[in-house]
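Why do we care about 3D structure at all? Because function follows from shape, and shape follows, mostly, from sequence. That is the central idea of this module. The next example makes it concrete: a single protein chain, its amino acid sequence, and then its structure expressed as C-alpha coordinates.
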Amino acid sequence: MTLHSKLPKVGTTIFSQISQLAARHQAINLSQGFPDFPADALLLDKLAEYSRQGLNQYAPMPGIAELREQIAMLIQRCYQRDVSAELDVTVTSGATEALFVAISAVVQAGDEVIVFDPAYDSYEPAINLCGATAVHIALQAPGYRIDWQQVAKSITARTKLIIVNSPHNPTGMVFSQADWLALQQLVLQHNLYCISDEVYEHMVFDGAAQLSAHCLPELAQRSFIVSSFGKTFHVTGWKLGYCVAPAALTAEFRKLHQYVTFSSFTPAQYAVAAMLKQRPQQVVGLGAFYQRKRDSFAGLLQHSRFKLLPCQGTYFLLADYSAISDMDDVQFCQWLTTEHKVAAIPLSVFYQSPPNARIIRFCFAKQDSTLQAAAELLCQI
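And the structure:
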Protein backbone atom coordinates (compact mmCIF):
# COMPACT_ATOMS: atom_id res chain seq x y z
CA MET A 1 0.00 0.00 0.00
CA THR A 2 1.15 3.53 -0.75
CA LEU A 3 0.51 6.09 1.94
CA HIS A 4 -0.02 9.64 0.74
CA SER A 5 0.83 11.79 3.75
CA LYS A 6 -1.31 14.81 4.50
CA LEU A 7 1.77 16.37 6.11
CA PRO A 8 4.60 15.20 3.84
CA LYS A 9 7.07 17.84 5.06
CA VAL A 10 6.57 17.12 8.76
CA GLY A 11 8.98 14.91 10.67
CA THR A 12 10.09 14.58 14.28
CA THR A 13 10.18 18.05 15.80
CA ILE A 14 13.45 19.73 16.70
CA PHE A 15 12.26 19.82 20.32
CA SER A 16 12.16 16.03 20.46
CA GLN A 17 15.46 15.71 18.59
CA ILE A 18 17.38 18.06 20.85
CA SER A 19 15.82 16.65 24.04
CA GLN A 20 16.79 13.13 22.98
CA LEU A 21 20.30 14.35 22.19
CA ALA A 22 20.49 16.06 25.58
CA ALA A 23 19.43 12.86 27.36
CA ARG A 24 21.93 10.79 25.41
CA HIS A 25 24.81 13.15 26.26
CA GLN A 26 23.61 13.99 29.79
CA ALA A 27 23.39 17.67 28.89
CA ILE A 28 21.47 20.33 30.82
CA ASN A 29 18.24 20.74 28.89
CA LEU A 30 17.41 24.41 28.31
CA SER A 31 15.76 23.56 24.99
CA GLN A 32 12.20 22.40 25.58
CA GLY A 33 9.89 24.79 27.42
CA PHE A 34 9.16 22.93 30.63
CA PRO A 35 10.07 23.63 34.28
CA ASP A 36 12.37 21.31 36.18
CA PHE A 37 10.96 22.39 39.56
CA PRO A 38 7.85 21.03 41.29
CA ALA A 39 4.37 22.50 41.14
CA ASP A 40 2.72 24.04 44.17
CA ALA A 41 2.11 21.42 46.88
CA LEU A 42 -1.54 22.43 47.19
CA LEU A 43 -2.13 21.68 43.52
CA LEU A 44 -0.53 18.24 43.82
CA ASP A 45 -2.38 17.48 47.04
CA LYS A 46 -5.68 18.43 45.43
CA LEU A 47 -4.94 16.21 42.44
CA ALA A 48 -4.37 13.26 44.76
CA GLU A 49 -7.42 14.14 46.87
CA TYR A 50 -9.80 14.32 43.90
CA SER A 51 -8.34 11.16 42.39
CA ARG A 52 -8.92 9.27 45.65
CA GLN A 53 -12.46 10.64 45.76
CA GLY A 54 -13.12 8.81 42.53
CA LEU A 55 -13.32 11.83 40.20
CA ASN A 56 -11.52 9.88 37.49
CA GLN A 57 -14.18 9.43 34.82
CA TYR A 58 -15.20 11.62 31.90
CA ALA A 59 -15.65 15.29 32.66
CA PRO A 60 -18.39 17.21 30.85
CA MET A 61 -17.33 17.95 27.28
CA PRO A 62 -16.83 21.73 27.81
CA GLY A 63 -15.04 21.20 31.14
CA ILE A 64 -16.31 20.97 34.70
CA ALA A 65 -18.50 23.89 35.76
CA GLU A 66 -16.28 24.76 38.75
CA LEU A 67 -13.22 25.28 36.54
CA ARG A 68 -15.04 27.25 33.85
CA GLU A 69 -16.45 29.54 36.54
CA GLN A 70 -12.98 30.11 37.98
CA ILE A 71 -11.67 30.88 34.47
CA ALA A 72 -14.41 33.47 34.00
CA MET A 73 -13.47 35.07 37.34
CA LEU A 74 -9.76 35.02 36.41
CA ILE A 75 -10.51 36.87 33.17
CA GLN A 76 -12.56 39.43 35.11
CA ARG A 77 -9.69 39.98 37.58
CA CYS A 78 -6.99 40.25 34.93
CA TYR A 79 -8.80 42.08 32.14
CA GLN A 80 -12.09 43.39 33.59
CA ARG A 81 -14.02 41.44 30.95
CA ASP A 82 -17.17 39.50 31.75
CA VAL A 83 -17.50 36.18 29.90
CA SER A 84 -20.06 33.42 30.27
CA ALA A 85 -18.60 30.33 31.90
CA GLU A 86 -21.39 28.30 30.31
CA LEU A 87 -21.33 29.68 26.77
CA ASP A 88 -17.86 31.15 26.18
CA VAL A 89 -15.32 28.94 27.99
CA THR A 90 -14.12 25.49 26.92
CA VAL A 91 -11.48 23.42 28.73
CA THR A 92 -9.11 21.61 26.37
CA SER A 93 -6.37 19.02 26.43
CA GLY A 94 -3.64 21.59 26.34
CA ALA A 95 -3.36 24.81 24.36
CA THR A 96 -2.20 22.89 21.28
CA GLU A 97 -5.55 21.11 21.06
CA ALA A 98 -7.34 24.44 21.44
CA LEU A 99 -5.25 25.95 18.63
CA PHE A 100 -5.93 22.99 16.34
CA VAL A 101 -9.67 23.05 17.00
CA ALA A 102 -9.95 26.83 16.64
CA ILE A 103 -8.15 26.77 13.30
CA SER A 104 -10.31 23.86 12.11
CA ALA A 105 -13.50 25.61 13.24
CA VAL A 106 -13.16 28.60 10.89
CA VAL A 107 -10.65 27.74 8.16
CA GLN A 108 -11.81 26.18 4.89
CA ALA A 109 -9.93 24.78 1.89
CA GLY A 110 -8.45 27.60 -0.17
CA ASP A 111 -8.32 30.09 2.70
CA GLU A 112 -5.21 31.97 3.77
CA VAL A 113 -4.05 32.37 7.37
CA ILE A 114 -1.50 34.98 8.43
CA VAL A 115 1.17 33.82 10.88
CA PHE A 116 4.25 35.61 12.16
CA ASP A 117 7.67 33.99 12.01
CA PRO A 118 9.30 32.88 14.19
CA ALA A 119 6.08 30.94 14.85
CA TYR A 120 5.06 28.10 17.15
CA ASP A 121 5.34 24.93 15.10
CA SER A 122 1.76 23.65 15.53
CA TYR A 123 0.11 26.47 13.57
CA GLU A 124 1.01 25.53 10.01
CA PRO A 125 0.24 21.78 10.15
CA ALA A 126 -3.26 22.55 11.42
CA ILE A 127 -3.72 25.11 8.65
CA ASN A 128 -2.50 22.67 6.00
CA LEU A 129 -4.83 19.91 7.21
CA CYS A 130 -7.71 22.29 6.47
CA GLY A 131 -6.51 22.63 2.88
CA ALA A 132 -5.53 26.23 3.57
CA THR A 133 -2.29 28.17 3.17
CA ALA A 134 -0.18 29.81 5.85
CA VAL A 135 1.04 33.26 4.81
CA HIS A 136 4.25 33.89 6.72
CA ILE A 137 5.37 37.37 7.75
CA ALA A 138 8.89 37.37 9.14
CA LEU A 139 9.82 39.45 12.18
CA GLN A 140 13.33 40.81 12.52
CA ALA A 141 15.85 40.85 15.36
CA PRO A 142 16.44 42.31 17.82
CA GLY A 143 12.95 43.58 18.69
CA TYR A 144 10.78 41.31 16.52
CA ARG A 145 8.09 44.00 16.25
CA ILE A 146 5.21 43.63 13.77
CA ASP A 147 4.99 46.06 10.85
CA TRP A 148 1.21 46.42 10.60
CA GLN A 149 1.43 48.15 7.22
CA GLN A 150 3.18 45.05 5.90
CA VAL A 151 0.39 42.94 7.40
CA ALA A 152 -2.24 45.06 5.68
CA LYS A 153 -0.50 44.55 2.33
CA SER A 154 -0.49 40.77 2.91
CA ILE A 155 -4.26 40.53 3.33
CA THR A 156 -6.13 39.27 0.26
CA ALA A 157 -9.68 38.26 -0.54
CA ARG A 158 -8.76 34.75 0.60
CA THR A 159 -7.49 35.79 4.05
CA LYS A 160 -9.71 34.26 6.72
CA LEU A 161 -7.70 34.28 9.94
CA ILE A 162 -4.75 35.93 11.65
CA ILE A 163 -2.86 34.18 14.45
CA VAL A 164 -1.00 36.25 17.02
CA ASN A 165 1.03 35.22 20.05
CA SER A 166 1.84 37.63 22.87
CA PRO A 167 3.92 37.23 24.96
CA HIS A 168 5.70 35.67 22.01
CA ASN A 169 7.41 32.31 21.85
CA PRO A 170 10.30 32.15 20.98
CA THR A 171 11.34 35.82 21.03
CA GLY A 172 9.91 37.14 24.29
CA MET A 173 8.33 40.10 22.46
CA VAL A 174 5.15 41.50 24.04
CA PHE A 175 2.43 43.44 22.21
CA SER A 176 1.95 47.09 23.08
CA GLN A 177 -1.47 48.74 23.23
CA ALA A 178 -0.75 50.14 19.76
CA ASP A 179 -0.18 46.59 18.47
CA TRP A 180 -3.52 45.39 19.82
CA LEU A 181 -5.33 48.38 18.34
CA ALA A 182 -3.70 47.87 14.93
CA LEU A 183 -4.67 44.20 15.01
CA GLN A 184 -8.26 45.05 15.92
CA GLN A 185 -8.50 47.57 13.09
CA LEU A 186 -7.37 45.04 10.48
CA VAL A 187 -9.61 42.27 11.82
CA LEU A 188 -12.66 44.53 11.68
CA GLN A 189 -11.78 46.21 8.39
CA HIS A 190 -11.27 42.93 6.54
CA ASN A 191 -13.86 40.82 8.38
CA LEU A 192 -11.27 38.37 9.71
CA TYR A 193 -11.17 35.94 12.59
CA CYS A 194 -8.33 36.04 15.12
CA ILE A 195 -6.65 33.40 17.24
CA SER A 196 -4.80 35.00 20.14
CA ASP A 197 -2.33 32.51 21.58
CA GLU A 198 -1.84 33.80 25.13
CA VAL A 199 -0.33 30.81 26.91
CA TYR A 200 2.36 33.04 28.50
CA GLU A 201 -0.11 35.80 29.37
CA HIS A 202 0.88 36.09 33.03
CA MET A 203 4.64 36.31 32.27
CA VAL A 204 5.07 39.99 31.46
CA PHE A 205 8.11 41.81 32.82
CA ASP A 206 9.50 45.20 33.82
CA GLY A 207 6.22 46.68 35.00
CA ALA A 208 4.51 46.47 31.61
CA ALA A 209 0.73 46.16 31.57
CA GLN A 210 -0.71 42.69 31.06
CA LEU A 211 -2.63 43.22 27.83
CA SER A 212 -4.78 40.78 25.89
CA ALA A 213 -7.36 40.40 23.15
CA HIS A 214 -9.76 40.32 26.12
CA CYS A 215 -9.09 44.05 26.59
CA LEU A 216 -10.55 45.09 23.22
CA PRO A 217 -14.26 44.20 23.05
CA GLU A 218 -14.62 44.37 19.27
CA LEU A 219 -11.53 42.22 18.72
CA ALA A 220 -12.63 39.75 21.41
CA GLN A 221 -15.93 39.26 19.59
CA ARG A 222 -14.05 37.83 16.61
CA SER A 223 -11.37 35.93 18.53
CA PHE A 224 -10.53 32.56 20.00
CA ILE A 225 -8.31 33.35 23.00
CA VAL A 226 -6.18 30.38 24.04
CA SER A 227 -4.48 29.93 27.42
CA SER A 228 -2.57 27.22 29.29
CA PHE A 229 -2.69 26.01 32.87
CA GLY A 230 0.36 23.90 32.14
CA LYS A 231 2.41 27.07 31.71
CA THR A 232 0.76 28.99 34.54
CA PHE A 233 1.03 26.27 37.20
CA HIS A 234 4.27 24.56 36.04
CA VAL A 235 2.52 21.31 35.01
CA THR A 236 3.03 21.10 31.26
CA GLY A 237 2.55 17.33 31.33
CA TRP A 238 -1.05 17.68 32.50
CA LYS A 239 -1.96 19.11 29.08
CA LEU A 240 -4.73 21.33 30.39
CA GLY A 241 -5.67 24.55 28.63
CA TYR A 242 -8.75 26.48 27.64
CA CYS A 243 -10.28 28.55 24.88
CA VAL A 244 -12.48 31.61 25.34
CA ALA A 245 -14.62 32.78 22.43
CA PRO A 246 -18.05 34.38 21.94
CA ALA A 247 -20.96 31.95 22.10
CA ALA A 248 -21.38 31.45 18.34
CA LEU A 249 -17.68 30.67 17.85
CA THR A 250 -17.61 28.50 20.96
CA ALA A 251 -20.54 26.46 19.68
CA GLU A 252 -18.62 25.66 16.49
CA PHE A 253 -15.41 25.10 18.47
CA ARG A 254 -17.15 22.53 20.68
CA LYS A 255 -18.47 20.60 17.67
CA LEU A 256 -14.89 19.74 16.81
CA HIS A 257 -13.55 19.53 20.35
CA GLN A 258 -15.99 16.75 21.24
CA TYR A 259 -14.51 14.57 18.50
CA VAL A 260 -10.88 15.42 19.16
CA THR A 261 -10.64 14.72 22.90
CA PHE A 262 -14.24 15.03 24.15
CA SER A 263 -13.06 15.85 27.66
CA SER A 264 -9.81 16.51 29.47
CA PHE A 265 -8.02 15.10 32.55
CA THR A 266 -10.83 15.18 35.12
CA PRO A 267 -9.04 15.24 38.51
CA ALA A 268 -6.67 17.91 37.20
CA GLN A 269 -9.64 20.12 36.32
CA TYR A 270 -10.87 19.95 39.92
CA ALA A 271 -7.35 20.54 41.25
CA VAL A 272 -6.79 23.61 39.07
CA ALA A 273 -10.21 24.99 40.01
CA ALA A 274 -9.23 24.66 43.68
CA MET A 275 -5.89 26.30 42.99
CA LEU A 276 -7.47 29.28 41.26
CA LYS A 277 -9.88 29.69 44.17
CA GLN A 278 -7.42 29.21 47.04
CA ARG A 279 -4.12 30.51 45.60
CA PRO A 280 -4.93 33.33 43.16
CA GLN A 281 -1.73 35.04 44.25
CA GLN A 282 0.33 32.46 42.35
CA VAL A 283 -1.10 33.72 39.06
CA VAL A 284 -0.59 37.34 40.09
CA GLY A 285 3.02 36.70 41.07
CA LEU A 286 4.04 34.70 38.00
CA GLY A 287 5.53 37.66 36.14
CA ALA A 288 7.78 38.63 39.04
CA PHE A 289 8.74 34.97 39.58
CA TYR A 290 10.00 34.56 36.02
CA GLN A 291 11.49 38.04 35.80
CA ARG A 292 13.78 37.11 38.66
CA LYS A 293 14.86 34.01 36.75
CA ARG A 294 15.40 36.01 33.56
CA ASP A 295 17.52 38.58 35.38
CA SER A 296 19.49 35.94 37.24
CA PHE A 297 20.26 33.91 34.11
CA ALA A 298 21.12 37.02 32.10
CA GLY A 299 23.43 38.17 34.89
CA LEU A 300 25.17 34.81 34.96
CA LEU A 301 25.79 35.05 31.20
CA GLN A 302 27.04 38.65 31.14
CA HIS A 303 30.67 37.54 30.89
CA SER A 304 29.98 34.89 28.24
CA ARG A 305 30.51 35.35 24.50
CA PHE A 306 26.76 35.21 23.88
CA LYS A 307 24.91 38.44 23.11
CA LEU A 308 21.48 38.37 24.76
CA LEU A 309 18.45 39.84 23.02
CA PRO A 310 15.60 41.70 24.76
CA CYS A 311 13.06 39.58 26.64
CA GLN A 312 9.82 41.29 27.66
CA GLY A 313 7.91 38.13 28.61
CA THR A 314 7.62 34.30 28.47
CA TYR A 315 10.32 32.08 29.97
CA PHE A 316 12.60 32.12 26.91
CA LEU A 317 15.75 34.11 26.25
CA LEU A 318 17.35 34.51 22.81
CA ALA A 319 21.11 34.62 22.42
CA ASP A 320 23.28 35.57 19.43
CA TYR A 321 26.33 33.31 19.15
CA SER A 322 28.00 35.13 16.22
CA ALA A 323 31.10 35.82 18.32
CA ILE A 324 31.54 32.09 18.95
CA SER A 325 30.93 30.24 15.70
CA ASP A 326 30.06 30.44 12.00
CA MET A 327 28.02 27.22 12.19
CA ASP A 328 24.34 27.40 11.31
CA ASP A 329 22.07 27.35 14.35
CA VAL A 330 21.01 23.70 14.04
CA GLN A 331 24.63 22.54 13.87
CA PHE A 332 25.55 24.91 16.68
CA CYS A 333 22.83 23.52 18.97
CA GLN A 334 23.96 19.98 18.25
CA TRP A 335 27.57 20.96 18.98
CA LEU A 336 26.56 22.86 22.12
CA THR A 337 24.68 19.80 23.39
CA THR A 338 27.30 17.18 22.63
CA GLU A 339 30.47 19.15 23.33
CA HIS A 340 29.45 21.59 26.07
CA LYS A 341 26.52 19.70 27.66
CA VAL A 342 23.91 22.47 27.36
CA ALA A 343 20.90 22.03 25.08
CA ALA A 344 19.19 24.95 23.32
CA ILE A 345 16.81 25.35 20.37
CA PRO A 346 17.83 26.87 17.01
CA LEU A 347 15.67 29.84 16.03
CA SER A 348 15.63 28.96 12.31
CA VAL A 349 13.17 26.10 12.85
CA PHE A 350 10.48 28.65 13.73
CA TYR A 351 10.72 30.25 10.25
CA GLN A 352 9.48 29.31 6.80
CA SER A 353 12.43 31.21 5.32
CA PRO A 354 15.04 31.61 8.06
CA PRO A 355 17.06 34.83 8.12
CA ASN A 356 20.83 34.77 7.96
CA ALA A 357 21.25 34.97 11.72
CA ARG A 358 23.02 33.02 14.44
CA ILE A 359 20.47 33.03 17.24
CA ILE A 360 19.35 30.28 19.63
CA ARG A 361 16.71 30.04 22.36
CA PHE A 362 17.28 29.13 26.00
CA CYS A 363 14.47 28.22 28.42
CA PHE A 364 15.00 29.70 31.89
CA ALA A 365 12.02 27.97 33.55
CA LYS A 366 14.51 26.03 35.63
CA GLN A 367 15.76 25.78 39.18
CA ASP A 368 18.38 28.34 40.12
CA SER A 369 20.90 25.54 40.49
CA THR A 370 20.18 24.34 36.95
CA LEU A 371 20.64 27.84 35.52
CA GLN A 372 23.84 28.32 37.54
CA ALA A 373 25.31 25.04 36.25
CA ALA A 374 24.31 25.80 32.66
CA ALA A 375 25.75 29.32 32.82
CA GLU A 376 29.07 28.02 34.13
CA LEU A 377 29.34 25.72 31.12
CA LEU A 378 28.27 28.42 28.68
CA CYS A 379 30.76 30.93 30.07
CA GLN A 380 33.60 28.46 29.44
CA ILE A 381 33.03 28.56 25.68
